[in-house]
Design a protein that fits this description.
The protein is globular and about 55 Å long. The chain has six helices and two strands; from the N terminus they run ααααββαα. Helices cover 65% and strands 2% of the residues. Strand 1 and strand 2 form a beta hairpin. It is mainly α. The longest helix is centred in the C-terminal third of the chain and has 32 residues. Strands 1-2 form a two-stranded antiparallel ribbon.
Length: 179
């Protein structure tokens, strides 16, 4: 067990490195307008987009990528649940969600990205995986890519993920309207 002064020193070190983690605050402002529908979901999405924006501006691309994946997975979960194709897992991952989505006959086309199923399932998921795993992972005895290259690839994955998350959200809304 640490002594009180040692615990205080550790706390100060953590605060010095990461800011005061005990006082993390919202990055978005609570809505002043009346929200129709699922207000907590609306507030969660506002917070998610505010965090994506701040993460990208600050160079925290992995945080942006993780939140973008959460948005994409949430929209796919909603859609797949509605059409009866949701994978039978407690929390299906992006791979399982995209696999089920690709099995669906409904087209998912976006004017900027073309086939969203391919853009997310093939292109973005691969760049997301490289960004999440590549900073230190390499085959034994093999050098990792230069940090600058990693950061450039992570930034590209974060930027693409943000546009794809918006596109999937638009597609999902269109599906809801179509009935």
């Amino acid at each position: 067990m640490r002594s009180a002064p040692a615990a205080d020193a550790l706390d100060l070190g953590i605060v010095g490195l990461f800011g005061d983690l005990r006082n993390m605050t919202r990055k978005s402002f609570p809505s002043a307008k009346q929200i129709n529908g699922n207000a907590p979901k609306y507030e969660s999405y506002k917070e998610a987009w505010a965090r994506i924006r701040q993460a990208q501006e600050s160079g925290f691309y992995l945080e942006a990528i993780v939140i973008e994946e959460s948005i994409i997975a949430d929209r796919l979960t909603s859609y797949l649940s509605a059409v009866g194709l949701l994978p039978n897992k407690h929390y299906p991952g992006l791979f399982d969600l995209v696999k089920a989505w690709k099995a669906d006959q409904v087209q998912a086309v976006d004017k900027s990205h073309g086939d969203l199923k391919a853009a997310i399932g093939d292109e973005w998921r691969a760049s997301r995986n490289r960004a999440v795993h590549a900073i230190v992972k390499s085959a034994p005895g093999t050098a990792t890519p230069p940090v600058e290259d990693f950061l450039a690839e992570a930034q590209a994955a974060a930027e693409l993920g943000a546009t794809l998350a918006r596109a999937v959200d638009r597609w999902h809304r269109a599906q809801l309207k179509a009935g």
